[in-house]
Structure formats: C-alpha cells, structure tokens
Amino acid sequence: MNQTANHASNGHFRIRLGMILMLVGFVIFLIGAVPDLFGLDRSPVIGFVQITVFLIGLALICLGGYICMNGLWNNHPKTILADIGLRVVSTGFVIAVISGMADVFGFGTQLSPEIPYYGPWQAMGVLVGEIIIVLGFIFQIPFRLQREESDNSIENKENSEASPVDMVFE
Questions:
Q1: How far is CA 114 from CA 15, 47, 48, 111, 117, in A?
Q2: How high is the pLDDT of residue 6?
Q3: Where does residue 78 rank: exposed (0-12), middle (13-18), buried (19+ CB within 10 A)?
Q4: Is residue 64 within 8 Å of residue 98, measured between CB atoms?
Q5: Quick one: which of 4, 71, 87, 94 has the fewest CB in 10 Å?
Q6: Is there a contact between 167 and 124 (Cβ–Cβ < 8 Å)?
Q7: What is residue 113's DSSP assignment?
C-alpha cells in the first residue's frame, strides 16, 4: 500500500470514528433533552441530571465533529478559518454549558441552587451556544480542498493523451 492510500484510509477512519461519536452523543443528548422518547421521564421539570446528560451529549457531538472535520482535512494544511472554527465550536460549547448550568453556578433565575430551574433564558442561551457550534463547524469545512482537487482533475484530463472516442464517452 502506498503512502497516499494510507493517508486516505486514515482520513476515512477518522471520519467514521467522528460520525460514530457524534451519533452516540446525539442519542445521549436526546436522553437528556427529551427523556419521554425513551420512557425515562420521571419529573415534570428539567432538573440537574437532565441538563448534565444533554450537555455531555453535546460535548460528545462537538468532539466527534472535531475528529470528523480533521479527517476531512486528511493531513492537508488547515486554513486560518478552520483553526478559528475549532475555537468557535469550543466557545459555543462553553456558552451552552454556562447557560444550561447557570442555576448550579449561582447566577441563574432560581435563587436556590438545590433545585435548578431550566427556564426560557437558559434555553435561549443553550440554543445560541448550539448555533455558534454549528457556525464553527461550517468554518471547518475544507471547501478549498474540494476546489483544488477538481482543478487538478481538470488539468489531468487536459494533459492526458486520450483518443477522441474516450473524450466522447467521458
């Protein structure tokens, strides 16, 4: 196996690993956010355990997305925008954690930290954090690599000596 095929298989492995991790994170996120789907709802309010579980799921989604995006770059140098995208994802996750755990940290709408209250402001903060995470993942997409690969394939077709019959059937 040559070096190029080894790099390609390494990228495919990281993409698969990232996707599996994101899927596991999504299931954990759903268990925390909507436990009714799994028959696990024991309380009419969203409590500390539910908030913690969906934030752990969100963390796994972010980690899996990072691994998957690195697999897409596959040992090519990243752009500055892709590096910034990683930091944007991390910032969005921090915003979601701080918003979700605001009552536990002591600056939420509920004064008593024994009974955390997941209110509309906290939900909005988590949603904003998730939107920032998505924006960070969009920054990490290797658009330039796709454009370079298509340019290289066009050059290779122009430089290759093919018969007119081959050109017709391409």
A1: 41, 10, 9, 9, 10
A2: 59
A3: middle
A4: no
A5: 4
A6: no
A7: T
Burial class, 25, CB count within 10 angstroms (exposed 0-12 / middle 13-18 / buried 19+): buried
Cβ density class 109-140: b for 16+ within 10 Å, e for less: ebeeeeebebeeebeebbeebbebbeebbebb
Number of domains observed in the structure of the chain: 1
Task: Please say whether the beta carbons of 67 and 26 come within 8 A.
Answer: no
pLDDT tens-digit readout, 13-35: 999 999 999 999 999 999 998 88
Q: Residue 138: inside a domain, yes or no?
A: yes
Domain span at 115: 3-142
Asked if residue 92 belongs to a domain, the reply is yes
Residue 99 lies in a domain: yes
The tens digit of pLDDT for each residue in 157-169 reads: 555 555 444 444 3
Report the distance separating Cα 60 and Cα 29, nearest Å: 9
AA letter at 90 = S
Query: Which pLDDT band holds residue 110 (cuts at 50, 70, 90)?
Result: low
Q: Flag whether 13 is in a domain.
A: yes
Q: What are the backbone angles phi and psi of residue 114, rounded to the nearest 5°? A: -70, -30
Collapse the DSSP code of 3 into the 3-class scheme (helix H, G, I; strand E, B; otherwise coil) and give the result: helix
Separation between Cα atoms, residue 142 and residue 81, nearest integer Å: 10
